[in-house]
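Changelog-adjacent note: as of this version, every example in the card shows the full chain rather than a window. The one below runs 372 residues end to end.
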Amino acid sequence: MKKKMLVAATAFCMAMSAPVICSAADTIKFGVAGPHSGDLASYGLPTVNAAKIVIDKVNANGGINGKQVELLIEDDVCKPEISTNTATKLVSDGVDVVLGHICSGATKAAMPIYKDAGVLVMSPSATSDVLTLSGDYPNFFRTIAPNAAQSPAMVDFAIDKLGLKKIAIIHDKGDYGKPLAEGAQKYVETSGKGEVVLFEGITPGAMDYSAIVQKIKQSKADVVVFGGYHPEASKIVSVMKKKRLKTKFVSDDGVKDDTFIKVAGSAAEGVYAAGPQDNSANVLSAQAKEEHKAAFSSDPGAFFDGAYAATLVMLNAIEKADSTELDALKKVLQTEKVDTPVGTINFDENGDAIGVGFSMYVVENGAYVVVK
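Full-length structure tokens:
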């Protein structure tokens, strides 16, 4: 659809006898979609910042193949029903590539629109297996590992590292948390290393989670494995602390965010969470963080490295392909390795980055640190 519209617009411009301003191809339109407001803004705003930093440098050096890169930023609040409008708006504005979306549910809802338009989409954070492993979205790529890698990592950590085998698996019923929890449940059952003593969903946005905490207590679980985001996790661990429940809490990259610590306060201490692999030894990661501090006077937040990497590899693909056509971009992405803050990466035939993974983190003295 997008390519047909572009051809038609070009033909129209050429056919007009009077001077006409036809600026569709004057810039490379780089979309950034994600939660820029609301409870999950701390996931989306670092991605906007990463794109700004990289694109400002590229434009200052002359752009790409003689064209400046133009940012189109749209807020989806991590809600599927809004992300479809976000995607429609970006496509109607002539977007060439999209960095985002952030949440798996919002991403899944938006992808058919981008697919029909032939637009490349790359997420630094959406881990749903369906996005790459189903084959439904050949225009989707990501710079984070999928749930298929995250679920086993969480379970193995709880059982092998912490020595906890009676597991309560809780999820938020969403497109991200529920499949992650189901993957953990399946892995426990097939590995034979532990026992699932409770598997249950909660209602996102509820004011009180005392009922689920009571069920966790009654199950005599050694550890809670939670699939979901930080607003619900912070409430659950706060109730657990109030009830003096000593059960360990292991969660996912949806909880590995400083906002979780700020909201949960002292109840966050000792919480474990999977997150994008530790890139502290990567020189480009350190450089990107310093650039963020210089530009925004703060440390970057969640998924910043992955967003920075996604911006780099998409712009590199546009430059090398000298095109924004999907097939041309995919060829570069799947064959050429690029040095990024998440490593030297290219992508497999499904769109997953080769060489990225997860690390486990724990909250100590009010901050997430890598579990050695």
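Structural remarks: The radius of gyration is 21 Å.
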